[in-house]
UniProtKB/TrEMBL annotation:
Xref: Pfam families: Amidohydro_2 (PF04909)
Keywords of the record: Hydrolase, Lyase
GO CC terms of this entry: cytoplasm
GO biological process: secondary metabolic process
This protein's name: Amidohydrolase
Single Gene Ontology MF annotation: hydrolase activity
Amidohydrolase-related domain segment(s): 16-340
Amino acid sequence: MTAHAHPHAKAAVPTVDVHAHVLIPEIEALVEGAPGLAEARTLDARRNGPTALAVSGPMVRDRLPRLTDPAVRLAAMDAQGVDIQLVSPSPSHYHYWADEETAEKVYRTANEATAAHCSAAPDRLRGLGLVPLQHPDRTVEALDHALAQGLAGVEISSHAPGRELSDPAYEPLWSRAGETGAVVFLHPFGCTLDERLDRWYLSNTVGQPAENAVALSHLIFSGVLDRHPGLKVLAAHGGGYLPTHVGRSDHAWSTRSDAGASCARPPSSYLRRLYFDSLVHDPHILRELVRVAGGDRVLLGSDFPFDMGTEDPVGALRAARLPAADFEAVRGGNAAALLRKD
């Protein structure tokens, strides 16, 4: 039974999936032949390994209609009982290798195409744009451009070449995101452990949660979250390894002067300042995430429509056997509050 078939669907808070992607062919067309693309593809191939690339190609092709056609997306959402999706560009569109001129074309195309995709069903689709992390001084204008398209915020990776999210160059971005109420969706793409993860798809299964943990640790330990209390960071993949191992961070913070030098409180306390999607593939880990971050900080996420996501996000949430209030909050209440238009 879909959410729409439910007799009380109108009165209930809608079911909201905050982790869903759109593929934008125009972006790949505009970067084709650009200096740096071949090198970036070579690095990507080295990090993932040949077997992973051989599996991923057909997987993405099989999902192209769901990634590009709003009607196909909406039908799939109906089948899943999902009322609203927060749609972000495929992370393959980051192109953080690009020069300034190309990077501007990428973010403008991403923002406009995502907004156009969502405009097919504005009551059911909200969107996120992109900012060029490799050009920190262009990130605020890119965020403003995304918001001007009616998007809810932007999606970023865990780092840019040579820059961590703790880099002072990003302070204007965090300030602007905080004052506008923009959502910053932290979704890693590419792990710097490189060919250590080039077999068995470790580049994703180990790489993504590791990158999440590193990026969130940079935001916490550097004091970014102290300086920008209004910042709304939503971490994909349940925040990766950090929420379940944050005790180690707290221990370092309280024991070592270098670890505790730049943030005001124990690292675990900042989990209640962040938002996390529910995509952890284990009901016990999801329960733990809700325990450490709070029932008001976890939001339903599926990674629609990729194979590392879940076909049944509500079922995966139900399997965690949360208290009813937490279940309803994660299913849609928290997203409704986070995405509320002023």
